[in-house]
Amino acid sequence: MKLTQRLAILGLLLAVVVLVQMFKLGQIVTGSAVNALLFLAALSVGPAGALIGLVSPWAALLVGAVSPALLPALPFISVSNMALVLTYAALLRYGRWVAMLPAAAVKFVILAAAVRFLVQLPAPAALALGYPQLVTALIGGSVAALAWPLLARAKSA
């Protein structure tokens, strides 16, 4: 895939991530959609998709989709998103479904550890960065794994 194609896909996915976050549909819906887009980024452009993980929390802050209470955690959210994409891309040779599990787990562990040991957050914000992150990553990964064959087929048609 050419660099211009990769950049176009990254730009499109980032735009959709920002758009989804602007709707403020709650953590389960928005988080699952954003995670699905992160998994799709890994499937479509490989490790370069981690750039979306890096930028998306900050874009969410700019459009008002993230509570200012989460500001201290944004660097860790970025890192966990990037780790999800990089882990998934690295393990894809074992299959979409197999790669999804450790990718979701890595994201969860990074955020849970950050909240537990590194960042002081109000209780509701800390809770939002715990198990709900694992759930939304697994939902998003499932959506991406199911959607990918359809998207790949549409691309080749």
Please, could you describe this protein's structure?
The chain is mainly alpha-helical. 80% of the residues lie in helices and 0% in strands. The chain has helices at 3-22, 27-45, 50-62, 74-91, 96-118, 123-128, 131-156. α1 (3-22) runs parallel beside α3. The mean pLDDT is 95.
Write a short abstract of this structure.
By secondary structure, this protein is mainly α.
* Average predicted confidence as pLDDT: 95
General form? globular
Identify low-pLDDT runs: none
Helix content: over 70%
The tally of strands reads: 0
- Secondary-structure-derived class: mainly alpha
Task: Give the N-to-C terminal Cα separation.
Answer: 17 Å
Number of helices: 7
H-E string: HHHHHHH
Sheet-strand content, in percent, reads under 5%
**Sheet having the most strands:** none
Radius of gyration: 15 Å
Reconstruct the topology from this structure.
Blueprint: H1 3-22, H2 27-45, H3 50-62, H4 74-91, H5 96-118, H6 123-128, H7 131-156
Comma- or semicolon-separated keywords:
157 residues; mainly alpha; 7 helices; 80% helix; globular
